[in-house]
Every structure is written in structure tokens, then in C-alpha cells.
Amino acid sequence: MKRTQTAEEREREAKKLRLLEELEDAWLPYLTPKDDEFYQQWHLKYPKLILREADSVPEELHKEVQEAFLTLHKHGCLFRDLVRIQGKDVLTPVSRILIGNPGCTYKYLNTRLFTVPWPVKGSTIKYTEDEIGAACQTFLKLNDYLQTETIQALEELTSKEKSSGDALPVYIAPDFPRIGMGSSFDGQDEEDVKSRAAYNVTLLNFMDPQKMSYLKEEPYFGMGKMAVSWHHDENLVERSAVAVYNYSCEGPEEESEDDPDLEGRDPDTWHVGFKISWDIETPGLAIPLHQGDCYFMLDDLNATHQHCVLAGSQPRFSSTHRVAECSTGTLDYILQRCQLALQNLRDEVDDGDVSLKSLEPAILKQGEEIHNEVEFEWLRQYWFQGNRYKKCTDWWCQPMTQLEGLWKKMEGVTNAVLREVRKEGLPVEQRNEILTAILASLTTRQNLRREWHARVE
After folding, report:
1. Are 220 and 284 in contact (CB under 8 A)?
2. Which residues lie below 8 Å from residue 232, measured CB to CB, with a gap of 6+?
């Protein structure tokens, strides 16, 4: 059964088609560091994009992080995701693993990923291998480092915006594409800055282009093959930053300067591409990424601009640190929702049936909505991905067993409601009110069960 596109998805697809129609057979212009106006354009149109080259990162941290990438790859911890795009299942060319705060999840392209928890203070986590635990500890260390770097960059951005007003920005030297200097900001700004850099997850990525039989061509600028298409990162706290550590497995021949006679970007070097969303006037940027480089998307850049990852010739890892919007995406949240739904449950009698405290339509409606949330946003999402999380840790096993038990009780609540509706003594008006309250949730449940069933056939 094909899922109906959301209004947002339809609007995005319409914008894409209009843009391609305007382009016809022409390419939009884009710039690389070989172009004279590259850094000036970066500063004028992409001032919230920051690059920290590898030599600005501590050498010991480079060594630990790169070893951690290889450890997780060796143990088979990264998986290609089967995501849902425009009602179709698509296998991502990139393999991924989500590491982060215990109990957090991150959802993208209708797929919920569950964190392999990093060992935050006060947590007890059993990893399947000591090496995997050490790798998670390393990415927590990298997270702390990138958080500090992000706060510094945001302070500089805040200071610059306050001091410059409407003044035009100046040219940035090629070796120093940074924003402003100084850190004079008030206490309220300080708290806001810290919250926008409070990374709670990192999504690790890996791809070996040599093993991919097909990669999409970049459609607007002619930038070459893409590992990740143009997108905004989804489900992040508003105006929060994103920090990315790049580990492209370069040999000595890849570390040399770009060929000055090569037109456009070097196809052997990994790049990150940036463009202003749905803008055909402003040139895009293709920024080369070398081993150990980091880049930062600050403030609202992720909302106003799109980015893509352009494949090189060698394997590449990345660690993308985010402030995931977890208000509805933590284990604590969904357990509290279950508790709320089951408050209407009175007792379980000998034959396994349950009785309800209230037939108030609003209470019944809320319970059925939570029932759907547990089943389709958590249980089916988790088990659809198989036993991938057990590769690293058993952390999620007990919570998912607990959620299954609570879901079974909600099934009992639904059956109890339907039994009450069928009773002959129930007033017609009350029966209609109950059915009106729960019908939408039951219809959604039936349709989604069909859809999920079709996905696993």
C-alpha cells in the first residue's frame, strides 16, 4: 500500500520540478577553492558555514577517532538504512550507526534510529566487545571537543553580528574562513549559544564508492556523483548547529593539491556541496574535505541552505553531531505516554479481559493515539531493523520488551472499548460519541499495519 505524501513532501517535490524546468539543459554555476571569488562568495552568502582544517584539531584526537571508525567497521556495526521516500523503500548508499545519549532516538526519512549509547556519567552500559565500548567513549570525547569548538564559533558569530550591524563583511583569506573574533555577549546569549551546541547524538556514516554500482549525479550544478543528495538535516532543535568530522581514507596521491587545469571539482576528492535553498542566482559551493577536516553549520544555515555530499574515489567515514529534537523521541517520553494511556485501565479479570475506568471520548481517543504511537513509531521501527543494535549492546532489549508488554495491554484496552460499544444497553448517542472519538485512530492503525506488512513481504 503506497503511503500518501505529506503536504511538505508535495511542496518540496514541486519546488524541485520547477527548479529543474527553469534550468532546462543548463547547469547552475558553482565555485571551488580554485575560483578567485570562492572565499568572497563564501563570506557573503554562506557566512554561517565554518571549516576547521585538520591541522587545527589535536593530533591525538585524530588518532583515537580514526581508530574508532575502523573498529566499528571491523565489528560490522554500520548498516545501510531502508528509508521511506515518497512512499517507496530505498536502501541508502551510506552505512550508518547512531551513537548518543542513552534512550535517545533520531528520525530521518521516516526511519527511527535508536542510539548505541555512549558512556555518559552515571550510566551503566554493557557492550558486546570492549573495543566497541572504547569506540563509543571516543565519539563522546569528540562530541565534547566539537561542542567547545561550536560554542566558540557561535560566540564569534554573535559578536560579529552585534558589532558589524549592516556593514558589509570583508574578504576572508583562503586559509582562514572563520567568522568574526571576540566573545562579548550577555548571560542570556551564553545560555542560548550553549543549548544550540548541546549535541546529544552523532550519526556515523561510511561509504566506499568503489563498491557502489550506481551513484546519482548531482542534478543542478553538474558537480558529479553524490553519496548523499541535497537535503536539510531533519528533526533538529530549531537554529541548532551541526558539526561534522570527516575521515576520508586518502593515500599520498590524494593529499596533493587539486590539478589547476581540472574544470570544476576534483572527482577523486570528497566534497561537501552547499546551495541556498531553491535559489538559481547564487553560485553553489563545493568544498573539498580532507582527512581530519571538520565543518560546522551554525544557527539557521541548515534551514535556509541545503547541502549534499559529493563522492570521492576512496572510502570515507564521517561523524555528524546534532542536537536532535527529542521531545517525542526518548525512552522516558514514550514510557510516560504509555503510563498516561493505561491510567484508564481498571483491572484484568480471570479470562484476560480488562475493564475501563472511564468511557469519556477524549480519554479513549488519547489512549488509542498513544497505542498507535507505541506500535508504529517505536516497536515496528525497532524490529523492522532486525537485530542490528545487538551488534553493539543489549541496552535496548529490556526497554523494547517492556514496551511490547505495555502495547499488549493497550490492545486489551481497545478490545474493552469495542465490547462496551457493542453492549445493547449503551445509549445510541454515547455509542456514536465513542466511535467518533476512536475511529480515526483505528482506521490509521489498520492502514499502517497493511503498509508495514507489505514492507516486510
Report:
1. yes
2. 277, 302, 303, 306
- CA 96 to the chain's CA centroid: 11
Query: Among residues 410, 391, 416, which one has the least CA distance to residue 334?
Result: 410
For the entire predicted model, the pTM comes to 0.88
- Give the model confidence (pLDDT) of 38-54 as tens digits: 999 999 999 999 999 99
Q: Which of 149-163, 174-188, 378-392 has the highest mean pLDDT?
A: 378-392
Strands 116-117 and 88-100: parallel
The β-bridge partners of 106 are 113
- Residue (of 296, 381, 254, 407) closest to 56 by Cα position: 296
Rounded Cα distance between 312 and 384, Å, is 32
pLDDT per position as a tens digit, 195-254:
999 999 999 999 999 999 899 999 999 999 999 999 999 999 999 999 999 999 976 544
119's grid cell: 558512556
Residue 310 has pLDDT above 50, yes or no: yes
Query: What is the Cα–Cα distance from 427 to 386, expressed in whole angstroms?
Result: 47
Cβ–Cβ < 8 Å for 291, 256: no
C-alpha–C-alpha distance, residues 227 and 212, integer Å: 10
